[in-house]
Amino acid sequence: MRTEQQALKVSLVGVLIVSALGIGFGVVSGSFAILFDGVFSLVDAVMSVLSITLAGLIAKSASNALSKRTHDRFTMGFWHFEPIVLAVNALLMMSVAAYALFQAISALLTGGRDVEFGPAVVYAAVVVVLTLVIGFIEHRANKKLGSALVAMDVKGWIMAGGVTGALLAAFLIGMLIEDTDAEWAMPYVDPAVLAIVALILLPMPFSTLRRALAEISLVTPPELKRQAEGAAQDVTESEGFTDYRVYAAQQGRARTIDVVFYVPTGMGLRSLEDWDRIRDETRAQLDGEDPHSWITVSFTTKTPPPQPQP
After folding, report:
1. Are 187 and 65 in contact (CB under 8 A)?
2. Which CATH number fits the domain that encloses residue 189?
3. Burial status of residue 81 (CB atoms within 10 A of its CB: 0-12, 13-18, 19 or more)
4. Contact between residue 174 and residue 33 where contact means Cβ atoms under 8 Å apart
5. Where are the alpha helices (DSSP H) in 67-116?
6. Do 39 and 81 meet the contact criterion of CB atoms below 8 Å apart?
7. What span, in angstroms and rounded, lies between the C-alpha atoms of 63 and 13?
8. Count of domains in the chain?
9. Quick one: average pLDDT of 66-94?
10. What are 183-205's pLDDT values in tens digits?
11. What is the pLDDT of residues 230-248, one digit of tens each?
């Protein structure tokens, strides 16, 4: 897989297969845990479609391959949609897990649920293998791609593999206690494992949600701030400027950096080529050739605004 879209499309096919298996085997076996697994995968499939669409738009925007109409409407590109998609994905996962936990607790309090463990074991075994294979393939491809969307997708496959692995263990236990003194516990196996899985899954997307909300809110990453201020400081000292101000934010893979240099009043005249040279040097220190970077460098003789107090 050479592109982000190819990786996400492979994942989408896998998610649709797992979703169909989960919903089908969930109905046949009577297991709400399996049904939850299928619904969880279906939600993931919907988000995969959004991710594939967004990845294509971002790639076209970076290579100036958008239609004129689309470009005129989105002159700033589509990078800002990336954290929105990640946030929605994380919220949906947490919501589904919370609903599953509620259903599991309700079933435990009302006598459990009868489950056909034979079909359930077959489902869990097949899906564990499938999730591990697809997750490994995507993780390997993302070492070169470095995509946040693919990384989130890999995390989803890891979560799905853990869920199904827990289901497999629980269903095997359910089969083993049949016709034993512990047979009374069989109806509680499915809701109990569902509750455990939901409790594990519920907080897992939180880190992704927190990062996505920070990017949507234009919170400046410390590393990006240090890099931008370091570059501005170097140029200010070498060119004899009075001061500088840096404004930076990260949205998905896109970096937006505004650098304002304060030039002393009465500084000798310079050609436009010289000002362009300073811009190019500043951009070079900020990886300005990256197609996902939006860097603006400006100059003024006005008095710089006061720095915020520490």
Report:
1. no
2. 1.20.1510.10
3. middle
4. no
5. 68-73, 81-109
6. no
7. 27
8. 2
9. 85
10. 888 888 888 888 888 888 888 88
11. 999 999 999 999 999 999 9
